[in-house]
Each structure stands twice: as structure tokens, then as C-alpha cells.
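Protocol step 6 of 9: fold each sequence in the batch and record its C-alpha cells directly after the sequence line. For illustration, a two-sequence batch is reproduced in full.

Sequence one:
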Amino acid sequence: MSKKDNALFWDTARQYLDHHLKVIRQVSGHTIDSYRDCLNSFINYLEEVEHTSRKKISFNSFGKETLKRYQAWMVTERGLAPKTCNLRMTAIRAFLEYAAQEYLWIMPIYTDACGIAGVKAANHAIEYFEPGEMTALLAAPSGNSKTDCRNQMILIFLYDTAARVAETRQVKVSDIHLEAEVPYVTLLGKGRKYRNIPLLEKTILHVKRYLKEFHASGPKSDTPLFYSKVHGEIHGLSSDTFEKMIKRYADKCRTDGYSMPDNVHCHMIRKTRAMDLYREGVPLAHIQQLLGHENISTTSGFYAFATLDVLAKAMETVNPDEGVKSWSDPDTLERLYRL
């Protein structure tokens, strides 16, 4: 391996992260950081486990057998979750795909990487709040403090719009359009794609009260909708603020006698909203638009299954008496015993 090969790898990696993803693809800073961490994780593995100096790393270090050893190491030695392992392998393949488009001789390396099967993950039940739990959670910030008022608006906003925490953090006052014929909010989602979400009448009333209290002094268009004040300066909220908030109110609900899932997090509100709409018969295509999923398969993979109550209602529509009578019908018996 020559110094030229080493320099090519590092230059290409920097070009991919700092120019291709940021400028050409215009993906979010969070996504770029995630891809950077994934690549750095593999580089650290090469250095610490494969004993390959950073000065000697090249695209040849991404051979199929090396990647398979890395995948096995993540599972057996590090004990990482299948989702984490697969995410890191996906980031490596995405980088190799970019490199192969720049240098054709890398294409076989990329093709080999694509042939590595992902770590099989168990299908877990979707985490969401039952109707009574969601109602209790929305009512939990019942105090008269300004923080409680803001937090209740955040919970209502998360539920009504089914927005991600990252999307909610980025919402500015100018993204709220209450004067439109159909009032809506503009969200900036994954891949820097915008989508407009209509606001319900009750939510509009809450938003108007919130704006009057928190943005009454002629806010600038770039002021965060949800913020905190430190030494008189407005600052956007961190993701940790959101997560700590929902855990605190979930604990309050438990104290008040309401049942709550064990591991509560904000993303459950988004899933709850989608699940509630699904229960009410809203078409998956509409739920897909609300959630900002690029492919309908992503939406159907998460929500297109019969929940217990939906399944129970479907089963109740069957009349047991009529079912028993049909067994004695000769035509029915003939159909049942035919291949």
C-alpha cells in the first residue's frame, strides 16, 4: 500500500462527508455526524483490532472478509444491537458507493460489501401510548408555571403533527401559518425535505394562546417556536430537554394512578398519532404524508398490522351461530374438503 493510496482514501472520505453529503445531498448535520461516527468506528476497529495503522488505511482495507470480521466483532465483542450494526454497515456501503462512482476500480469492493447479509433483528412490538395514557400525558403539565404551559404546547404539537423531535426543535414562528384557508405548519424533515401539516381547530386555539404568551413582543421570523431563556437570551431546546420533559410527566401520571409504558420517549407520541389515525381508518398514503416517509413501505412496515382492539372488533363481526349452521351445508363441506 502506497502513501498515494492512503491519501486517496482520506481525501475521498473528507470530500464525501464535508462536500457530497453537506452540499450536494444537503442532508442534515445530524445525519452527517452519524455517518462520520460510523466510518470512524470502522477506522478505530482497523487500528485497534486489525492492527492497521491509520497511515496505511486505504480502500483495500474495506475487503469483504475484513468487513465480515468487523460485523461479527460488533455483535460478539461489543454486543451492539442489530440495528446499530446494520446502520454502521449501511454507512460504509454508502461511502463505498460514492467512492466507486469517482474511481471505477473501487466498484468490486463496493459490490462485495453489498453482498454481506445484515444482522438479523427480532421484530419488536411498536411502542405507543394507549388512548387513556395519551390523554393523561397531555394533561400532566397542569401547573400554572410558564414552563408547564410551554411543555403542554410541545406535547400537543408533537401529537397533532406527528413531528419528530428534531423537526419540532427546528420549527420557527414563521413556520406557523394560521391565516391560511387551512391553517398549517411547515416542517423540515429528513433529507432537508419540507412538508406542510394541517393543524386541528383545538390545536389552533392552543397555538394562538401560546404565541400570545411566549411571542407577544413582535417575534422575529427566525425565532424558535419553542425556546428557553438563559440570561435574557432566547435559545432553542435540546433533544435532552424533550426527553427529560416527557419522562417527568410520565412519572407524574404514574403517581396520579395512571398506567404508563416503562420506557417512555418522545418518539412514542409520533407513533401513537399514526396508530390512532390507522385505527380510525385513515389511508396509509395519508399517514405516510403526515409522517414524511419517502416510501409507503416504511409506513406500512410499521403500522399496517391489526392491533388487539382492531382485531377484536373484526372477530366480533362473525356470528358464531351462523358459522355452526354452515358446517351442515353439503356445498360448504364440499368446498372445505377440496384442495
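Sequence two, same batch, same settings:
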Amino acid sequence: MKIALLGYGTVGRGVDEIISARVPQVEVARILELPDRLSDPRMTSNFDEILADGEVELVVECMGGIEPARTYIMAALAAGKHVVTSNKAVVAAHFAQFASAAQASGVGLYIEAAVGGGIPWIAGIEKARRVDEVTSFSGIMNGTTNYIVDAMRKQGAEFDDVLAEAQRLGYAERDPSADIDGIDVANKTIISASVAFDVACEKNLPVTGIRTLTKADLDLFAAHGRTVKLLGRGVREGGRYAVAVEPVAVPVESLEANVPGNFNLVTLDATTVGELKFYGQGAGSLPTGNAIVQDVLDCATGARRPAYDFSRGLDYDPTLLRADYVFRTTAELDGEEPYGKGAYLVRDLTAEGARAILSEALLADPTSFMAALS
């Protein structure tokens, strides 16, 4: 099978490296690259050339961002070319549109690499769903934030110092907002819920990151036998579902508490198989490239062709995600109980309600922090 790569950055080069070294039945025949970077005879800066190439059966989109990625994916699907993508932002924003276009053209849409890097998370959900209903999922889906929290905990360091080190190591971008504010996890949570629950997932989910986390917060939770992890979560019950992204104070003996460095750990729960956990590298050139190549091979061999149907019509019900929450703030709260110095426990809140309380608290105290108790 001849394929085209859209983008030749870290992930694109990783895909090319793996295929050229290990997958003789697949050829990277065309590469879309910027006009000033055409360093390979396979490269072109004109996407229409790739679209018109009848020998190219599959397009791998690893450009990132929304546009022009969305336009290129839709054009490739309309032209009858299979699409593999690692772009969680564009999939989260346009998943239903892509799935409909793929179905109309009779081609495959493969998104394994969009969530969890090299972890077979999406395929794992799909396999579980052949027999079961997935009733819930949760997990550490962002290696950057896990690295930051893990380093703060082990080194006794402050957030800003560890973030700077993460940027130096290449784990965090120069602008780390997508990671530390939970945006990256939100995209992955939307995709996970869409696949797990057969629903075009609600985009306005409550999202809270770890930007205001301090060493003192970790010390406080440690005194209660807990540590903090940024989790994406989803739950389905009957004809309803809910999702959220937020810091969660998990017991120190839990597997989640002990996930090191930039690793990911995601969990699903299903009716007969019960709880399944998936652990591994959640990002990086070769792990993400591996997930893309797995999708390419599934398509080339006919081993797997995902079909996404979002006609289930589940209702979004935020009352399904409830917990007790700890707020560290100088702002006044209703119904709080002391939890530690400057911290208060508020019981039985929805994730949506807790986020609303935090938003109000941040107006009075921009350093406020919140975590659900697991």
C-alpha cells in the first residue's frame, strides 16, 4: 500500500522511520511539507497533488491544529482515501463529521494515535464494546502534567521550577497552556467518550488543570494519604452520560498515584470484562508513530476497520459525576469543612458544580486550587 504523510515533524518522521525499517508492505510515497523544507524527492507543498495521486490509498495526517488539517482530512475522505490521524484537537472538534464522511465514502477513519500515544486505548475500547457496554473510563492522559506532579512530589520542588525543567527536556511546549490547563486531556476525553459511549460527546465539559498546584497542596494531600493526578473521566448510565477533566486526589497506594514521569495510565470498566488498565508512553515520536503504523497495518491488511455511529442519542447529565471536593483558597465558600491549612472540604458536588465554585473562588483568589477526592 502506498501512503502519504501530511506533515514531517516529530511524529511524521517517526512514522517514516518505523515504516522504512519494519513494514515492507507499506511505502511512504508522498509527503506534504512546507515550500522551504522540500528536502526529499517524495515531498510536495501542494496537497492537491497528493489528492490526485490514484496510487495513494491512505493519508496519514500528523500536522496538528484544526486548519488546514480538517480541510485536508475531509478532502481525503471525499476522494475515497483512508485516513489515519494523531491529531486529537481536530478529531475532538469534528469527530462526527469525519465519521459520517468516512462512512459515505466507504473508507476507514483511524484515530488510535490521537489518545494515549503508543497505548492501544482506542482499539481496547472498541474490542471491549464488541461484547460489553463500557460504563466508565478514567485516566492519566497527559504525560507533561504527570511528569510535573511526579517531579514535584519526588523532588519537593515548586510547580514553576519543574515546568521549566519539563520545557528544557522537551516534555512541555514553550506555551504549556494546552497541557497544564487541561485542554489536551479534554480533547482526549471527548474522543474517548465518543468511542466508549457511541455519542457525539458534549464539547462544553467542565475542565480544570493544575496551573495553580503548589508543593504545599501535595504536602497537604500526602498528610491525608493521597496525591494529585490530572484525570479525564467519563461515566454512562442508561441513556445518560457525563465527562470531566480535573485534578483528583487519589490514594497513595493506587496504581494511578504511582505512575512515573511522562507515562499514561487509562482505565475502562465494562459489564462482563470488568476493569481494564492500559499503561505506557503517552507521547513521543516513536510511541505515537507506532500507534499510527498499527492503524496503517490494520487498514492495509483489512484486519480492522472502525465504524463510528453517534446516533445513540444519549443525554448529557452532569449529576452522574459526583464527588467530595477539596478547595485551597482564601475565598469564602458555602458549606465547607476544614481539611487543612487554608483548605476546605465541600461534599457531594457534581464536577460541573465544583468547577463553577472554583471559577468564583479564582476571582477573589487567583491562586485557588481544587481537587476531587477519589
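Proceed to step 7 once all outputs are recorded. Observation for sequence two: The mean pLDDT is 96.
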